[in-house]
UniProtKB/TrEMBL annotation:
Transmembrane segments: none annotated. It comes from the Bacteria. One of its GO terms (molecular function) is sequence-specific DNA binding. This is Transposase IS200-like domain-containing protein. SUPFAM superfamilies: Transposase IS200-like (SSF143422). Gene3D superfamilies: Transposase IS200-like. Residues 41-179 form the Transposase IS200-like domain. One of its GO terms (biological process) is DNA transposition.
Length: 212
């Protein structure tokens, strides 16, 4: 398991006073990134976690879940995404995958979050949703806290990317497939349709994956 940790203190401790502008730039970058984990190789295999702001349980309706499923399949067909495993829970998604050259993992994550955010916001407004006003208010509040978001901020900035070796991938695959079991949603991983557990049990799942 590999990750790169960037410390603001370690980056700036050796800089001289005249490098104040550089220090400010580094500080701004680290605050905006908000993560210890960085994608260093755009075409390596990563374990990724995308989480809804405030850990809000958004994915409680099939309409919202299917937006994620359709977007993943679109990226697999058109954006060079190779997915080895995934699971969608009520407030986050885990997946294992990589991007084929010349595509980049950072670009995929940016576009995936941007597109699904817009689609989710539209669906919250359009379908019968008892939490509509509460959800939109929460996501609007999060958007007002940053200049980088539009009307609604649905995903947290952090993707928590962890570069995987083959043995790590199998460990993480077991972990993500076991999520719905630990949450008490199903008794066995392959019973949960919003994951790749069915594929590894020999049953075609909702998203096209490449078995490890």
């Amino acid at each position: 398991m590999k990750f790169l940790y960037i410390s603001y203190k370690s980056l700036t401790s050796s800089l001289k006073n005249e490098d104040n502008n550089l220090i400010k730039t580094l500080k701004s970058y680290l605050i905006m990134g908000g993560s210890r984990y960085i994608i260093t190789d755009q075409n390596q295999t990563y374990f990724i976690t995308c989480t809804i702001v405030g850990w809000i349980d958004l994915f409680t309706r099939p309409e919202y879940k299917n937006i994620i499923v359709d977007s993943l399949n679109h990226c697999i067909e058109n954006k060079g995404l190779i997915l080895n495993g995934w699971v969608l829970m009520t407030n986050h998604i885990h997946f294992i995958g990589r991007c084929k050259e010349p595509n980049k993992m950072s670009d995929f994550l940016r576009d995936f979050k941007k597109f699904t955010s817009k689609q989710l916001a539209v669906n919250i407004k359009d379908i019968p949703e008892s939490r509509r006003d509460w959800l939109l208010d929460k996501f609007s509040f999060e958007a007002r806290k940053t200049n980088r978001a539009e009307n609604h901020k649905i995903w947290q900035d952090d993707n928590h990317p962890i570069e995987l070796q083959e043995i790590d991938a199998f460990q993480k695959l077991h972990y993500i497939h076991d999520n719905p079991v630990k949450a008490g949603i199903v008794e066995s991983p392959e019973q949960y349709i919003y994951s790749s557990a069915k594929d590894y049990a020999g049953i075609k799942g909702l998203v096209k994956i490449e078995l490890i």
